[in-house]
Amino acid sequence: MSLGDISTLLRGGVLQVLMLASPLLITALVVGLVVAILQATTSIQEQTLTFVPKIIAILLMLAFLGGWMFSSVRDYTIQLFQMIPDIAK
């Protein structure tokens, strides 16, 4: 296994993590921004108010995208296991 193969594996793993985490992180960011704007306009400065909407939004996104996330991780894992014989040479 060459250095190029190792860097390809690492790049694929990092891209997989970013692809799976980005919808959840973007959702949390958008919900947090909306709640912050609502807090600023209404002068409500409750710190715990941001957590509940974020948690609900993330759970909804997990329910909506969970199947795609699982199949993506499954395909990537199968691809890695199929590469094991080539690595062992």
Task: Tell me about this structure.
With 89 residues, the chain is mainly α. The chain has one domain. 88% of the residues lie in helices and 0% in strands. It is built from two helices and no strands. α1 packs antiparallel against α2. The longest helix is centred in the N-terminal third of the chain and has 40 residues. It is elongated, with a radius of gyration of 19 Å. It starts with a helix and ends with a helix.
Please report the distance between the alpha carbons of the first and last residues: 8 Å
Q: Please report which band the strand proportion falls in: under 5%, 5-15%, 15-25%, 25-35%, 35-45% or over 45%.
A: under 5%
Instruction: Give, in order, the helices and strands.
Output: HH
Instruction: Please estimate the helix content.
Output: over 70%
Tally of discrete structural domains: 1
Q: What class do helices, strands and sheet pairing give? A: mainly alpha
Overall pLDDT score: 91
Radius of gyration: 19 Å
What general outline do the C-alpha atoms trace? elongated
Largest sheet: none
Count the DSSP helices. Answer: 2
Topology:
Elements: H1 3-42, H2 51-88
Helix pairs in contact: 1-2
What are the main properties of this structure?
89 residues; mainly alpha; 2 helices
Outline of the structure:
With 89 residues, the chain is mainly α.
